[in-house]
Amino acid sequence: MLGKLLKxxxxxxxxxxxxxxxxxxxxxxxLGLSTQSAESKSEFIVVITGLLYVAxxxxxxxxxxxxxxxxxxxxxxxxxxxxxxxxxxxxxAHIANKLISATIWVIVTILVAMLTAILIGLGGLIVAGxxxxxxxxxxxADLQLVLPDHVGLYIFxxxxxxxxxxxxTIMQIYAAVTIGHQVPNHTTLASIxxxxxxxxxxxxxxxxxxxxxFGGWNRMIITGPTNIHEVFIPALLATAAFAAxxxxxxxxxxxxxxxxx
Length: 261
Description:
261 residues
């Protein structure tokens, strides 16, 4: 059943996000084309395309957060909840559906941001080639890069932590929205207050638990961990624990305290 929910949820966000992604990519490419020609043409075009790129990027970031909140709130706590909660689907599946979809679109947004950086460079290379500029690249040997041992493992661990952090952040938002829904007349204000309280709770608990893993908060601040392996497992476990806590808060309130009146 979760797969069927995702088949509906993913396109629902995609219909609104994909046009923005296309516009963002187009603006990035145009910015790349205009940057290399700034010396021969007015810089006005560069400024305009740069502002357009930043405006679209900002709009996408804001829209992503808004869509994550709206898709969860409207479907499971708002008017659509009357229909969704009578389906033969568990509460956990409903929450997991929203979480997976939101995480996927956050990852897609990050990948599109990386793509726009490539498109800016590609546009610059095209103009440079047209103008006969030297666009040769130094070899890895010329750069004399010294990569640490097990660099692939480090990158993998960083990606896992980034995805886990995204999941936890999304669950923080869901928990705050669900808690805020317990105050019908001031839902938005209560949700904001709940989110601030969650951040304070997590920060305070982290300051208490953190030294248990790293032998003292002061040492961690001054010297830091010697490598990512020192923080990967503890950070992943802590992130997963907080995400699970917020998940069960949402599940409990939705099953026991949901008021759709």
